[in-house]
């Protein structure tokens, strides 16, 4: 739900008519016109009608409409192709020459256009996937809770003994814990670049004076913070304004009236009946009400719960909260920019405690995201400093004389020989990653299996290996289990749920929203624990994967799940999912559910009711993802570009 990650440009439906222009068979002909035959000269009185009557019956038509088909066809294909999901467009481009005119899928300087290779995953790509899965879980929460009681925990009140209500299992359809994860990720992402600039200002470069380095870094920091503050409002509020405007259009067209009775019928929606936006008598009243709703939605002056939420789409209440917390976060970064790193972390942690005492859980999550980002930036700088030290020891030239650590080779060769070879077969380029760290894959293989036998392990290598496995695998797994349990805190009646009775009794009496006590704590621990796992973007020769046990680094690694193609796709459309799942459910979703229950399964028994809900889900869930994909490309990405262009137009260049 933020704009700190690089967004890939969508070239859907762009420049489709260049295929015709670049086709050598057309020669120097006018674009979009087929070769014309010489018109038939007829001097009779019926000559004006000759081309319309005789040609239609006996010969090829000569009037201009039929020859404009090559021009009309791309105009019809563009919207049709744009409405396809982006993953289908990629497959179509890969199988045909349709991609030859898409600028984002051409290689520069090449005569023959080729599809670009997928970009490598960034070190923080798992956060994109985590945000995408969280957004999808929020949609499932709002889909499920209309029909079932999902807020209570397993065994709450002596009932609710259902498998889907068990801890860990209930997370895939729980919304409040995912909102906490959203806020941690937002704090991390918004802080990452400013913190990098702060750290670069605190470190001096040998080639430049400290004063010049500090001045340039702090100037870039001020420019970055100014850009983030300026674009944040457009980024957060403009897409919801457009989505709610689309809701008003659908309302005036009568689409919401399809399910007006269904939306308040307890026979079908047996738990939560959301607000089904009212249709006014006149369009003027409707649009004036929308304008007031948007004005109230941009709510900056109130920190009450659900402040700024609108009845047009009740799910959007977190966006004003995110904006207010973002502004406070930017002020925090500016105020602590010149502090030492440990002092800055201590100050932010102190503010977290202070905010927690005031039950401002959202600010705690944003600030803790900053603390996690600070730790990662510090580790990255330490790794760079170590590489520079190794290069200087090797003669001052990187890659000429790498310094090979024997313990590292022992860890890699003795623990993961099969995984190393398996990864090299599937990813031959992985030896470059090893070379970047001062060790080539050939050196590792030859050192590991000299004459077909593994090199004997020393006691120091075994000791370092055991401590590294505990630090990089088992300790994060322990934290991960704790975080998942805390995130599974029931939303209501947690004091009646087994396993939560004692924990709920420990919540301070002044904390009003009990379910907001342990869930934020679990969200922070969860993001921290996942960050400690090795990344799938690195091969087994990388430093993060060397010390991980094979079963965890290959199969039980949560970071690889968040870095998968499906999670990355959901991460790209996460904000769009959050914005459109409400109107899709109230229009197409309710229609599908009503038809399924009334014409297929019925609702007389619980089994029929659940069966109808499951059958409807096979169509409702893809519909939400499809509409979110279109909204992402048609609204979300253009808004990001629009905000940057506005900033470029009005900013003072100095």
Automatic annotation (TrEMBL):
Q: Which Pfam families match?
A: Acyl_transf_3
Task: Locate the compositionally biased regions of type Basic residues.
Answer: 420-429
Swiss-Prot/TrEMBL keywords: Acyltransferase, Membrane, Transferase, Transmembrane, Transmembrane helix
Q: Where is the composition biased (Basic and acidic residues)?
A: 15-28
A single Gene Ontology MF term assigned here is: acyltransferase activity, transferring groups other than amino-acyl groups
Record keyword Aminoacyl-tRNA synthetase present: no
Keyword Amino-acid biosynthesis found: no
Instruction: Please give the residue ranges the record annotates as the region Disordered.
Output: 1-39, 98-117, 420-459
Q: Which domain of life is it from?
A: Eukaryota
Ranges for domain Acyltransferase: 125-366
Mind telling me which residue stretches traverse the membrane in this protein?
A: 132-151, 171-190, 236-255, 314-334, 341-358, 569-589, 609-632
By what name is this protein known?
Acyltransferase family-domain-containing protein
Native organism is Sordaria brevicollis
């Amino acid at each position: 739900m933020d704009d700190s990650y690089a967004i890939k440009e969508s070239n859907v439906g762009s420049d489709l008519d260049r295929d015709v222009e670049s086709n050598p068979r057309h020669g120097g002909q006018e674009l979009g016109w087929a070769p014309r035959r010489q018109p038939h000269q007829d001097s009779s009185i019926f000559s004006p009608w000759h081309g319309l009557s005789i040609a239609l019956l006996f010969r090829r038509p000569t009037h201009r409409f039929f020859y404009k088909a090559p021009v009309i066809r791309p105009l019809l294909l563009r919207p049709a192709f744009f409405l396809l999901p982006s993953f289908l467009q990629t497959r179509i481009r890969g199988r045909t020459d349709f991609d030859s005119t898409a600028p984002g899928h051409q290689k520069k300087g090449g005569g023959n256009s080729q599809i670009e290779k997928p970009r490598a995953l960034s070190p923080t790509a798992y956060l994109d996937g985590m945000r995408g899965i969280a957004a999808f879980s929020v949609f499932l929460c709002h889909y499920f809770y209309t029909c079932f009681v999902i807020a209570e925990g397993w065994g709450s009140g002596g009932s609710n003994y259902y498998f889907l209500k068990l801890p860990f299992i209930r997370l895939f359809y729980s919304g409040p814990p995912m909102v906490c994860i959203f806020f941690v990720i937002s704090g991390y992402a918004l802080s990452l670049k400013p913190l990098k600039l702060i750290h670069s200002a605190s470190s001096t470069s040998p080639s430049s004076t400290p004063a010049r380095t500090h001045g340039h870094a702090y100037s870039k920091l001020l420019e970055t913070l100014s850009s983030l503050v300026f674009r944040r409002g457009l980024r957060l509020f403009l897409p919801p304004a457009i989505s709610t405007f689309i809701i008003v259009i659908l309302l005036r067209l009568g689409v919401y009236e399809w399910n007006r009775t269904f939306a308040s019928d307890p026979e079908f929606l047996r738990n939560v009946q959301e607000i089904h936006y009212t249709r006014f008598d006149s369009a003027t009243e409707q649009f004036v009400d929308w304008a007031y709703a948007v004005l109230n939605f941009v709510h900056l002056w109130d920190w009450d719960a659900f402040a700024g939420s609108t009845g047009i789409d009740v799910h959007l209440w977190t966006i004003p909260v995110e904006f207010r917390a973002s502004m406070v976060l930017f002020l925090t970064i500016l105020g602590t920019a010149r502090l030492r790193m440990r002092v800055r972390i201590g100050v932010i942690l102190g503010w977290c405690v202070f905010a927690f005492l005031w039950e401002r859980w959202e600010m705690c999550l944003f600030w803790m995201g900053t603390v996690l980002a600070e730790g990662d930036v510090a580790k990255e700088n330490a790794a760079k400093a170590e590489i520079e030290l190794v290069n200087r020891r090797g003669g001052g030239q990187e890659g000429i004389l790498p310094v090979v650590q024997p313990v590292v080779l022992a860890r890699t060769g003795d623990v993961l020989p099969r995984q190393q070879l398996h990864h090299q077969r599937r990813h031959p380029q992985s030896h470059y990653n090893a070379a970047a760290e001062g060790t080539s894959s050939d050196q590792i293989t030859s050192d590991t299996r000299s004459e077909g036998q593994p090199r004997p392990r020393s006691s120091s290598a075994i000791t370092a290996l055991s401590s590294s496995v505990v630090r990089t695998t088992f300790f994060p797994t322990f934290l991960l289990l704790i975080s998942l349990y805390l995130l599974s805190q029931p939303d209501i009646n947690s004091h009646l749920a087994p396993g939560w009775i004692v924990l709920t009794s420990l919540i301070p009496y002044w904390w009003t929203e009990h379910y907001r006590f342990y869930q934020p704590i679990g969200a922070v621990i969860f993001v921290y624990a996942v960050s400690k796992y090795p990344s799938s973007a690195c091969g087994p020769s990388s430093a993060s994967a060397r010390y991980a046990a094979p079963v965890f680094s290959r199969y039980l690694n949560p970071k690889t799940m968040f870095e998968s193609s499906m999670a990355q796709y959901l991460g790209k459309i996460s904000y769009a999912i959050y914005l459109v799942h409400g109107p899709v459910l109230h229009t197409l979703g309710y229609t599908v559910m009503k038809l399924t229950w009334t014409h297929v399964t019925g609702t007389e028994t619980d089994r029929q009711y659940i069966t109808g809900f499951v059958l409807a889900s096979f169509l409702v869930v893809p519909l939400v993802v499809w509409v979110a994909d279109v909204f992402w490309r048609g609204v979300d990405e253009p808004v990001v570009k629009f905000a940057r262009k506005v900033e470029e137009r009005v900013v003072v260049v100095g």
